[in-house]
Amino acid sequence: MSNVTLRVNGTARTVDIDPSTPLLYILRNDLNLQGPRFGCGLGQCGACTVLVDGVATRSCITPTSSIRGEITTLEGLAKDGKLHPVQQAWIDEQVPQCGFCQNGQIMTAKALLDRTPNPTDVQIREGMARTLCRCMTYYRVQLAIKRAARTMRAGLDASKKEVTA
Amino acid sequence: MTAFTKIPKQVEEILSSRREFLKTSGLFVVTLGAAAAGIATLMTDHSGAASPQAAGPYPDRDYRQLDSWIVIHENNTATFYVGKTDCGQGTGTAFRQMMSDELDIAYDKTACIMGSTDVTVDQGGSGGSDAIQTDGLPMRRVAAEARRVLLEMAATRFSVPVDQLVVANAVITVKADTAKRVTYGELIGGKRFSLALTGNNINAATGRAPMKPVQDLKIVGQSLQRYDIPPKVDGSLKWAVDMKLPGMVHARNVRPPFAGAKLLTIDESSVRSLPGFIRVVSKGNYVAVVCEREEQAVRAAVALKANWEKPATAPFPASEDLFKYMRSAGSQTSRANPAVTGNPDAAFSGAAQVLEAEYDVPFQGHTAFGPAHATADPSNGQMTIYSNDMKSYGMRNGVAEFLGMPRENVRVVWMEGPQAYGRTAADDAGFEAAYLAKEIGRPVRVQWMRHEETAWDTKGPAFTFKLRGALDNQGNLTAFDYDAQAADYNHLGYNEANTVLIAQLMGSRPRNPAGGGADRPSDMYEIPNRRVTTQVVGLPLVYETPLRTGNLRDPNGPQVTFASESFIDELAAAAKADPVEFRLKLLTASTTDDNAFRRARSIAVIKAAAQTFRWDTRPSPRPRGNGRILTGRGIAYTYRSQTVVAEIAEVEVNRETGHVWVKRMVCAHDCGLVINPEGLKRTVEGGMLHSLSRTLHEEVKFDTEKVTSIDWASHPTMTHLDTPETIDVVIVNGDPNPNRPDLPHYGAGETVCKPTLAAVANAIFDATGVRLRRVPFRDDRVLAALKAAKV
Questions:
Q1: pLDDT averaged over chain A?
Q2: Residue of A nearest to B230 (CA)
Q3: What pLDDT, on a 0 to 100 scale, did the predictor assign at position A1?
Q4: Shortest distance, CA B139 to any CA of chain A (angstroms)
Q5: Where does a domain end: B456, B489, B504?
């Protein structure tokens, strides 16, 4: 066991752990951040996805000691009490069935849209291909990503206007 | 034993009410405040908020008491307590809509508590897609009764007859003097109704008030957003898998490495020095390790050394030999007992054309997205299990029996979980957590690993079919001979103390294994001569097998409908008839029985699907194109428990790779009165795509020692890449006969799982002229079939 300091959702957190432990267990059990979930422990399904410096990362196979950057979990997406446009799109589109996988869908989609603000259908399918859902909500997830992309672009355009005005 | 010193905050949240509701209504504050002050007797046994503080015992809720179902609070809000669980289709929202409507209260002033055995009546949890169809009726009746009682109370208060009162949004007003008004909260808030209901069983529970006629329902029929979705997307919902308790420890199972293996010895020294190690718990062939921390338990389960003895004979044939085994004489465990209408033999001998075909469907897994899990707390000499078990009441009974505890000392707190559509009907993890908690004397959280879940969960039964059909010289179907064999012997019961996996591994055996079953087609076709034969096949290993069967989303329907609706398509092609026209002809027979009405609904649904798809009337297959991609369309239909569904799939088949993409799906759906149309559409989409995954990908593989499908790589499933470009769901609401009253609300969910496999198979035939009779249609299998047919 040793002290490890992680930067999570904008706060530095120090935990006394075995540093080789996969990040998922530390987030869920020590830091009480349970948005990321155990699905396979093999990096195959995406349920455990968090963002590390904006990159979608499978926390179930990532040793805690290897983390250098800022971690964002599902709980950290909302800002100032306002849901992230991806989360809002998920509500507007009524995406989830059981919802257990949706942490992975949302976090992966967020990283995808940050990378590719105006994704084509093919880019959405391929970008999300390794993020699984047992309730097969893929159709709604894809619609919600397109909806979120529109919202986020509109937001960007609006802020640009403000800057140039 | 530890005792509750402090209630975990998340338990308060779960049991008190739904988060979104708490934020908006202030109910939480009022309820907890009242409980803390001890001013309301209501709170001690009627409010979910108070219950986690109760040390037990936990007697059954009395369904014959109105107070068991509905609590009106002083701030004029209501909480509904229902004995159902949600599998992710948003049934809680639908229950609130139905009950709010009958009670005459605004939807957003209500909350719904579901499925926890100590605070809700036993409506059985979920299963069979009957939540709305069956359980919605007592919910509506008791809410109507509460409204009636409140109106009578107001009539007394204002000294006017009830018919001089109007009620809206939980406020009762005197018609002639609208200054005279009183809220539900003012009439009864924080107090008991103390009103007895009648009814010999919970489904019959009723008061004296009738339900509203359909035309008076205002909240029912609205596409309200599901209340459970915001906390699911912002990360605030606490799921069963998130449960934490003071002093809690973590367990992992160690499964036999071979099916039917016997445990000889355990070398505890292999794990004793590992960090956090507490104990190895073992009885019979059940083994688990318990550690302080979760990752420690994961590592200890891998590190534990044990010696196992292989069984003397192979537990089952390898998966590639399964269908040969199932067709071999002697594997059947039940007698063939054909159900015959008309004279099929005579019809076959006089036929112009006789068709025969065999179909195969392998074992398919539930493969829950999150492996089985539960947390059990043995505090205060009671046993509380925090679980996502869809049948929480059954688990309570089963665990009580398994542990030899009185039922009243056991409760199951239902929380949301990953759905696997039938897997938790026999929720092994809940039994394991309870057993381990009793052994260790501390709260225990147990969770299966991925390899364990995929290999050892319950399976949907494999089927083989042999079908024969007779056509006369006008292309009419005159006889239909259906023979189904299902590998379903010892089909698992619901949370039975002697058949859950831990019990089997410990050596429990019921007096007789469950017989299992094979189903018949569920359609409304009028075929004059039919023979239906169903038989069950047993595998050599009956107990402690990873191939034990359980109910997987419409347990036999996808398999049976794959065979029956594929074969109807083969008959249509042989008759050179359009597949839609051929089906409509089978449904237009004039009879005077109730089936005529069912056929009329079937016709309406098939026509709605065809119209939406813009179906081009012609026989299949279409003239084959020359390109790399071949396209086609196929239809399939079913009738299940009064719900009618027709699905049309449009496919693209890559003749070079064998890859099938279902580009478009149309579903026409009639389940009578619809509570929440957009919610229903999402449910239909999910069900169809679940079946599409079973059509294209899913198959449990095994050798003669063990299941070899152990994760998402060795057991592929549908992904974003397979998703159709367009899905159209057409709600055909009800009754083609305008002279009949409106239909009641029937069930939805499982019915749509039936036709998908055949719709896709029929579309592939239309595109290529090749008939696929073995699920799943993985690329290599499709390519081999195309090559064999020189496509």
A1: 95
A2: A91
A3: 87
A4: 23
A5: B456
Say which residue, B54 or B534, is predicted with more confidence.
B534
Decide if B260 contacts B541 (C-beta within 8 A): yes
- Which tokens hold the place of B417? 């979980």
Q: Please report residues of B whose CB lies closer than 8 A to that of A136.
A: 685-686, 689-690, 692-693, 718
**pLDDT tens digit sequence for B400-418:** 999 999 999 999 999 999 9
B 678-717 residues with CB below 8 A of A?
Answer: 678-679, 682-683, 685-686, 689-690, 692-693, 711-713, 717
B177-183 and B277-283 beta bridge pairing: unpaired
Q: How far apart are CA B366 and CA B716, in angstroms?
A: 13
A60 to chain B, any CB pair closer than 8 A? The answer is no
Q: Tell me how far apart the alpha carbons of residues A140 and A95 are, in angstroms, rounded to a whole number.
A: 5
Q: Tell me what pLDDT residue B65 has.
A: 98
Evaluate whether the domain defined by A85-164 bears CATH number 3.30.470.20. no
Q: Which helix (H) or strand (E) holds B536?
A: strand B529-536
Note which residues in 92-121 of chain A have CB less than 8 A from chain B.
Answer: 94-103, 106, 121
Q: What's the pLDDT at B734?
A: 65
Is B578 in the same domain as B718? yes
Region B568-573 average pLDDT: 98
Its ipTM equals: 0.96
Q: Which CATH class is domain A2-76?
A: alpha beta
Q: Choose the closest CB to A87 out of B234, B370, B717.
A: B234
Do B89 and B217 lie in a common domain? Answer: yes
Residue of chain B with shortest Cα separation from A124:
B720
Scan residues 445-504 of B and list those with Cβ closer than 8 Å to A.
447, 449-450
Domain enclosing residue B274, as ranges: 245-312+367-456
Closest CA to B445 of B239, B244, B238: B244
Domain residue ranges of chain A, discontinuous segments joined by +: 2-76, 85-164
The identity of residue B532, as a single letter, is V
Residue B302 touches partner A, C-beta closer than 8 Å: no
Q: Give A148 or B12, the one with higher predicted confidence.
A: A148
- pLDDT for B597 equals 85
CATH of the domain at B70: 3.30.365.10
Is A43 in CB contact (< 8 Å) with chain B? Answer: no
Query: Nearest 5 degrees, angle CA B430-CA B436-CA B440?
Result: 145
For B292, nearest residue in chain A (alpha carbons): A29
Mean pLDDT, chain B, whole residue set: 92
Q: Which of residues 7-26 of A touch B (CB under 8 A)?
A: 18, 21-22, 25
pLDDT given for residue B595 in this prediction: 84
- Cβ within 8 Å of residue B626, ≥6 positions away: none
Q: Which of A150, A154, A153, A49 is nearest to A106 (CA)?
A: A49
Q: Which residues of B are less than 8 Å from A41 in CB distance?
A: 298, 449-450
Nearest to B423 by CA among B376, B364, B507: B364
Tell me: do B610 and B478 sit in the same domain.
no
pLDDT category at B325 given cuts 50, 70, 90 is very high
Inspect the interface and report whether the beta carbons of A99 and B232 lie closer than 8 Å. yes
Q: State the pLDDT at residue A158.
A: 67
B331-338: average pLDDT: 89
Phi-psi map region of B498: left, alpha, beta (phi>0 left; psi -120 to 50 alpha): alpha
Q: What is the pTM of this model?
A: 0.94
CA distance A68 to B230: 31
